[in-house]
Amino acid sequence: MRTSFSVLSYKGKGWSPTTAAAPLSLTSLPLSHSEFSPFSLEGKTGFNNSDMAEVKPMFREVLPKQGQLSVEDITTMVLCKPKLLPLKSLTLEKLEKMQQAAQETIRQQEMAEKNSSK
Prior knowledge:
It holds the Pfam family BBIP10. InterPro entries: BBIP10. It comes from Phyllostomus discolor. By secondary structure, the chain is α+β, with helices and mostly antiparallel strands. It is 31% helix and 15% strand. The protein has a domain at 92-117. It has helices at 33-36, 49-53, 90-117, and strands spanning 3-11, 14-22. Strand 1 and strand 2 form a beta hairpin. The longest helix is centred in the C-terminal third of the chain and has 28 residues, at 90-117.
């Protein structure tokens, strides 16, 4: 027993719905058992990629020339980790320290001049 489903197919000028029959299970697909069975690799000692290169896909990939590939009905919010930024940058802190040091040396020089003038 097969179930039918609707498929959009591209026929020259545009997409049109067609009805196709779907297999109920993978066992009804016309594939040889020895090619795709997980038990077919049991006896092999050296399995390599060249064995997999021989298997051809049953369906070929079809990309539309026009139109929309997919539609998402609901847009969802994505929560990201908050980025904590410092109130003052490191360079600003260094500049402030340099200014404070310069002001301190100026004060010391002024105090030294006042003491020497007395």
